[in-house]
Amino acid sequence: MADNKEKKGFRPGVYAVIVGIIMAVVLVALTIFAYTTRYTALSSEKVAQSYIDGIVQTGDGYNAYKTTLVSKSAKYGDFIRNAYMRPYVNDGDDVKQADFVGTGDKEEQEAIDKVYNTMYDYYVELLNTYTWDDYDSFFTHYFEKLVQVRHEVYGDEYMSMDFMFGALEANVQTYSDSLTGTDEVLAADNKTVLAKATKGKYQELFGDDYKLTTTVTDVKELSADEAKAYVEEYKARVTPIAESGEAKAKTMGVENIVKKEKFLLFFKKDKEYNYKDDMINSFKNLDHADEIEAVAEVTCKVADENGKVDVEIVVPVVKIGRSWYVDNTNLSTNPLYLAL
């Protein structure tokens, strides 16, 4: 039977509630999230549907990778840190930051806003150029640009992973809001408007009460021979990616290093940081050809009630152990970026 997921354009507003109720809701939500995340992976249909629906509803191809083979061997965040952020990070090297950092004053806020806004324009440019299908080009260009923008705005050479994730995820959220629109945000007095409601591109394209639905219409599990041929083709696609880590590390000057770090009182000891190895392995571990046990093709249909959206896409998923993963090396999500 086909599964349906539906989301309305506007997200629920923020309301003041009793602390006890908040905690109860948070605990329930965390439990549901943990449960659904874990058990979605056990179904080829649900994995494919979740992947497609995540992109369609908010244009968030960034977080969609959490259901793909990219996140099989390492946490998605760790993959990004080791493969793309590491060459730029220097927050542990006593690099001086701009004097206004940490003050919380107007100058700091203006600097943060300028970086985020400048990077948002570049984020949209990258999205139009690559979509998130080519995450390698996306991350490579984005972080290279972020370092440049930080230097121009802050006037320092500092860079940390927290700053990098902060900018990227702020841009992801801003793009999502630009599609779905936002609710009005009120202060604690329920009268003072902190942020006005905004209308998103989806409302403009599909109507104020639009509803996008992702439906699984067909599931085809490949035969043993078909799956074997598929894995061979997958191996050919993923091998150049898996072998690219060493060249990337060399180009960007990433090396394993040893630092003297405080141990006890005034004593220090050597500590090894395998930055180069971590970068190389982050790419090498993207190859799962020897682990794939089954392959399926899940057909998903995206539509709205007004007939303005009618997109069908076949999602290749592979099974490793008890879990299914989207094979992101064999899928074009361009049709899912409905506002581009």
Kindly estimate the percentage of residues that lie in beta strands according to DSSP. 15-25%
Tell me how many strands there are: 9
Radius of gyration, in angstroms, nearest whole number: 22 Å
**Alpha plus pi helix count:** 11
Beginning-to-end CA distance, first to last residue = 32 Å
What percent of the residues sit in helical stretches (DSSP H or I)?
40-55%
Unreliable segments of 5+ consecutive residues: 1-20, 22-37
Average pLDDT for all residues: 89
Structural class: alpha+beta
Element string (H = helix, E = strand): EHHHHHHHEEHEHHEEHEEE
Shape summary: flat
Q: Strand arrangement, largest sheet? A: 1-4-7-8-9
Sheet with most strands: 5 strands, antiparallel
Question: What does this entry look like structurally?
Answer:
About 45% of the residues lie in helices and about 20% in strands. The protein has eleven helices and nine strands. It has helices at about 20-40, 45-60, 60-65, 75-85, 105-130, 135-155, 160-180, 200-205, 225-240, 245-250, 275-285; strands spanning about 5-10, 185, 195, 210-220, 255-265, 265-275, 295-305, 310-320, 325. Strand 2 (about 185) and strand 3 form a beta hairpin. Helix 4 (about 75-85) packs across helix 11 (about 275-285) and helix 5 (about 105-130) packs across helix 7. Mean pLDDT is about 90; it is low at about 1-20 and about 20-35.
Q: What's the short version?
A:
The chain is of the alpha+beta class. The chain has helices at residues 19-40, 44-58, 61-64, 76-85, 106-130, 135-154, 161-180, 201-206, 224-242, 245-251, 275-284; strands spanning 4-8, 185-186, 193-195, 211-221, 257-264, 267-273, 294-304, 310-320, 323-326. Helix content is 46%, strand content 18%.
